[in-house]
């Protein structure tokens, strides 16, 4: 009997590479700009979702393969690492690209009897905005601002909400994960705790070669050390997606889930200690932004200055709905506590200066 077909966009990203080995019971079609480095079996399709023509290409792929599910991971998170520095180009991939994939699903389900039954999209905690008043639920307003990545996650989240009713027999899932953690993860916040000089300039390259770390930076004031944050291990996130694929589609058209590790949040101060980072304090958020702006323009750091609110604010989520959704499988899917997920990000750290 033929395996059910799952299409995964953004297959070459970190989450895609962690998800792929879990999908052995499926025939996987990976979509991306470049093929993933993997030993797992898959069919790869090169496609640029930032182009309008990708809508038809995706529709034909879904129609011809009779895919039962689409996992939409394609998203530009780090403009420096991906080389997508133009904001309009980034928006076309992130927001318009999400709309194009959903349009393709809608059209494929209109023209075939055995169409796509599940559409899974990872949004982000950043869609809620920084410095939240408490542990937000899935009904809390999306108020991302300042940081393009966060704004695009908010807008893409809204695209999925608006288009889900038109997917014709397909259940949609919006997952709002907290910051990814784990030994394989590279992102803004983890980079700040790692002190990674991950810019493209010669000075950054020299620092990496010499094993030097940038200090972690926070504004002065105890409240910034006391601010709390959650994490989700990228492998747990992959297991959440596999769990959804293995269960029957929901009767409702849209399911929204906050996703974070088990246990209590960490304070920023505790994160600094666990990362063994050197901490410097600056007079305020304005000064922090100026330092990040200097490091950005000097191509020493890949952390954009617009990330300051998300690096200095408190934002935590209520994940009770996720616990109920996973039921007795909760601890088998979410295997890492928040603290253990964060600690795993530093287990491969070499001695640095």
UniProtKB/TrEMBL annotation:
- Show the InterPro entries listed in the entry: Epimerase_deHydtase, Lipid_A_modif_metabolic_enz, NAD(P)-bd_dom_sf
- Tell me one Pfam family matched here: Epimerase
Specify the NAD-dependent epimerase/dehydratase domain's residue ranges: 6-259
Task: From the Swiss-Prot or TrEMBL record, give the protein name.
Answer: NAD-dependent epimerase/dehydratase
**Source organism (scientific name):** Candidatus Sulfotelmatobacter kueseliae
The top of its lineage is: Bacteria, Pseudomonadati, Acidobacteriota, Terriglobia, Terriglobales
């Amino acid at each position: 009997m033929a395996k059910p077909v799952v299409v995964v966009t953004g297959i070459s990203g970190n989450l895609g590479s962690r998800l792929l080995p879990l999908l052995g019971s499926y025939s996987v079609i990976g979509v991306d700009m470049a093929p993933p480095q993997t030993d797992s079996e898959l069919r790869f399709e090169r496609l640029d979702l930032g182009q309008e023509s990708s809508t038809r290409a995706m529709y034909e792929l879904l129609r011809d393969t009779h895919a039962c599910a689409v996992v939409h991971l394609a998203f530009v998170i780090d403009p420096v690492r991906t080389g997508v520095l133009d904001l309009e180009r980034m928006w076309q991939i992130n927001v318009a690209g999400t709309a194009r994939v959903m349009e393709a699903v809608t059209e494929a389900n209109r023209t075939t009897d055995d169409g796509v039954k599940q559409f899974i999209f990872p949004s982000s905690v950043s869609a809620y905005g920084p410095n939240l008043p408490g542990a937000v639920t899935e009904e809390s307003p999306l108020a991302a601002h300042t940081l393009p990545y966060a704004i695009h996650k908010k807008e893409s989240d809204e695209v999925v909400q608006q288009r889900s009713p038109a997917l014709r027999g397909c259940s949609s899932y919006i997952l709002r994960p907290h910051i990814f953690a784990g030994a394989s993860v590279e992102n803004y916040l983890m980079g700040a705790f790692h002190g990674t000089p991950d810019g493209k300039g010669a000075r950054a390259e020299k620092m990496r070669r010499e094993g030097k770390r940038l200090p972690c930076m926070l504004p002065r004031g105890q409240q910034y050390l006391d601010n709390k944050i959650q994490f989700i291990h990228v492998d747990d996130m992959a297991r959440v997606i596999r769990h959804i694929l293995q269960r029957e589609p929901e009767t409702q058209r849209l399911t929204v889930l906050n996703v974070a590790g088990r246990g209590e949040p960490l304070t920023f101060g505790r994160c600094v200690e666990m990362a063994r980072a050197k901490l410097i304090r600056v007079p305020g958020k304005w000064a922090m932004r100026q330092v990040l702006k200097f490091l950005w323009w000097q191509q020493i750091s890949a952390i954009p200055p617009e990330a300051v609110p998300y690096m200095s604010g408190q934002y935590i989520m209520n994940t009770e709905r996720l616990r109920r959704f996973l039921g007795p499988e909760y601890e088998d899917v979410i295997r890492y506590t928040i603290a253990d997920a964060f600690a795993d990000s530093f287990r491969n750290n070499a001695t640095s200066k």
